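User: Before I run my own analysis I want an independent prediction to cross-check against. Here's the chain; please return only the structure tokens and, at the end, one sentence I can use as a sanity check.
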Amino acid sequence: MSWGKVTDTYVAAIQHGLADLSPDVTRVGVVRQPTGWFHAAIDENQPELGPPTDLLEAFRDAEADMKLQGFCEEGAHNAAWEQVGFGKAYREYLEDSSDAQAALSELEDRLESGESLALVCYENTEKKRCHRTILREQLEGTL
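Assistant: Structure tokens:
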């Protein structure tokens, strides 16, 4: 049995045909509160793997402050990410949350059985930091 592959992309890339995904890949949303149009672009959503609400709120507040200070959108996003320690906090959430652990375990089992997965959220990681990169790296570490 061969392992499946894990990749990641963002929803606008799927909507505009820019995501290079094989037809057999399962598109797994990893957002806390998906919109209807987000659901239309994915096969399923695992909200437990979205960042926790308190971390998202702290991040959005910091991002808004950065924008008020004159940062461009991408600059504000990335500066806020660093200011709130987003990467470390998200990794701790993945380790400490039983819901996140269960969702991770399910995805690991699916990869082990040969299913290929594409993690999907809102951010274009060519310009902005994103939790799904951390999540993909964590899953790749199990392969």
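Sanity check: The CA atoms of residues 6 and 137 lie 9 Å apart.
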